[in-house]
Amino acid sequence: MRAYSENARREGKRVGFVPTMGALHAGHMSLVDYARSACDALVVSIFVNPLQFDRADDLDGYPRTWQADLDMCAAHGVDVVYYPTADLMYPQGFQTKVSLGPMTQGLCGAHRPGHFDGVTTVVLKLFNAVQPHLAAFGEKDYQQLAVIKRMVRDLDLGVEVMGRPTVREKDGLALSSRNVRLSPQEREEALCLWRGLNQAREMARGGKKKASRLKIAAEAEIKAVASARLEYLEIVAADDLTPLEVLDRPARMAMAVWVGGTRLIDNAPLD
Ligand code: AMP
Questions:
Q1: 271, pLDDT greater than 90
Q2: Which of 108, 123, 218, 242 lies at a C-alpha separation of 20 to 30 Å from 116?
Q3: 28 included as an active-site residue
Q4: Cβ(170)–Cβ(162) below 8 Å
Q5: DSSP SS3 for 72
Q6: Nearest CA to ligand 1 atom 5
Q7: Any domain includes 172
């Protein structure tokens, strides 16, 4: 992988990179299309990273659609699909991890022990292998995007990290590889996340600035659905993710909700 990138760089090419865990959908492809347009050589990685899973059943049951993924990459002009095995990434004796501070402790970090250490460790390893000029990440995983931007700054990685908007179904559900686990009824009920975010957004647009009022309104949308269980719902500063009581700077509402046995996350700006 590194030889390919070093060669591309020698030829003066701009290397673009989209890291994924496969089960590719239109959300991933929006990142691919963006990076394709901004770069000369385009690498997609497919690696279901065991280090970032906090539950064995989630890792074992993670959807794997290898051939469809390759077809999609080919159709969107991807030059290289990099798919290391877990043994290659974490050989016997592996013991180093990249661990960030407070930004990884709230939101998903508070409920998924070790998750962000797994993310930052694998992304640094992937960056080292792919040596990209630019890497595209989705706002769908907003905390992940903010954490990776922080890591790149803190460790002087020299990669341009580009955040791209969340791609949604027509009715508002954020595309996710985990959506295939929803039953038809749960698929309907999963819209409560989007309804909650919209409720808060409208209140913010209408001038409401108290975070607690917006949170109560959004929570009501989740509580109205019997099969939905709220894991967290927070309003945080858009840049460093500190919790806000008053919307006095660019803010983001982020939530995780269990719908039946599936954990869904979503977020939106409150500007
Ligand atoms: P994953 O395969 O879930 O690890 O996601 C790989 C990349 O795709 C991450 O940067 C995600 O944020 C991004 N992504 C996942 N779902 C979406 C979506 N619905 N819209 C935009 N980007 C997404």
A1: no
A2: 218
A3: yes
A4: no
A5: helix
A6: 20
A7: no
